[in-house]
Amino acid sequence: MSTLPKIERLPDARVVCRVTFEPEKVKRSETDAIARLAQEVKLPGFRPGKAPAEMVREHVKEEAILEEIVRNLLPETFSSLLKEHNIKPIIHPKVELEFRNPLTLKITFVEKPEVTVKGIDKINIEKKKAAFDQKDVDRMEQYFLDQHRTYAPIDRASKAGDRVHLDFHGVDEAGKEIQGTRSVDYPVILGSKTLIPGFEDALVELRPGEQKFFKINFPEKYHEKSLSGAPVTFHATVKKVEEVHTPELSDEFAKKHFGVANRTELRKQIEERMQAEEDRIEQSRREQLLFEAIREKTQVKIAPELLEEEEHAVMQQFDEQLKSQGLTAQEWLKQSKKDPVELRKEMQERAEKRIRLRLGLEKVVEEKGKRLTDADMEQVIKEYLQSVPEEQRLEAASKFQKGSELYERLHWQTEVQRTIEHMLSQ
């Protein structure tokens, strides 16, 4: 750097540095830049990297050369600025070209901002008693019995409680088939209320091979809004009628299918599992409310560069989620009836909430948290490795050396978890 950089510290934890480089330094960087770019330029009569600099310059855009010059200058520049001005960035700096001659860059670093969480001690998340009644247990027992039903084909007219296999499709008032209503060899137990109201009732008293047309309306609160309350005429053909045999919940059934002594023991296990699930749901509910309370009470000025980087991460996760569902962003926008501006706003809001919560959690852990000692972390890592297959533990353990990325991530996650548990236990 030819002149002392101009350093400006802004209230939102940004450090703006303006750096002007000596012409000689820029010239050396330009020579290195052209030498590297020469490796990518194919010129007749020259092997890669052997063409004269003047010829390379003629075949490479000026913007590409300038970009490479800046890239060459940045590592040393970053190192010097961080060391001499005690800058501690939390994300990659933003680099902007201010002047080409003399070459002047504006480099914006974002440090960890000042964070306050007002009223931490006043956060109190009500705990509800996780409960269920015996009817819930009865329904779970019935579910287990239903999983072990048997079916026997029978040559008679169908009745409630039978299972029928049918082909069907629905048409609108103009006789046009309604998309998504066609199904082949569909099994349904009559009276199970699996299909829309009125459908299963219309299938009673039909023999295998019989057809029936019947008109009903889609429910007013149907999941496909375009069909809510709409009239539809179904064309159905019964292919098979089966009697349904449901076993009794006996001691023998409990022992055979669940490995317990008797039905009393099975019911006890069902109650314990349901209680554990209710407890898990209640714990999750309280954690979410606690996170929301911390985020709302967190006061911080978020630098635009920090928000932009988080927004990019949120958008990447969103794209990956869509890919897992076999959708493109354009298809999702069409289905959700949103435009790109609305999507961008949602991503920005989500990014802002994530940053605020993350910084708020850090502050809560710092002030009220259950901090971990090295001995604590040794035990945490030991417990974690127990979940790893034995043949992989040695390799996994080597990745949890103190100071490694995995060590620090597990350290942070454990401190947050223990802090949350402590706050919810009060």
Task: Explain what you see.
The chain is α+β, with helices and mostly antiparallel strands and 426 residues long. Helix content is 47%, strand content 16%. The protein has helices at 23-38, 53-59, 62-85, 134-146, 251-258, 263-297, 304-324, 329-336, 340-368, 374-385, 393-398, 405-425; strands at residues 6-9, 14-20, 94-99, 104-110, 116-117, 150-153, 163-171, 183-189, 211-217, 231-245, 298-299. Strands 6, 7, 8, 9 and 10 form a 5-stranded antiparallel β-sheet that branches. Strands 1-2-4-3 form a 4-stranded antiparallel β-sheet, with no helix packed on it. A two-stranded antiparallel sheet has the order 5-11. A hairpin with a 4-residue loop joins β1 (6-9) and β2 (14-20). The longest helix is centred in the middle third of the chain and has 35 residues, at 263-297. The chain starts with 5 loop residues before the first strand and ends with a helix. The model has no long low-confidence stretch (mean pLDDT 91).
Question: What attributes does this structure have?
Answer:
426 residues, alpha+beta, 5-stranded antiparallel beta sheet, 4-stranded antiparallel beta sheet, 11 strands, 47% helix
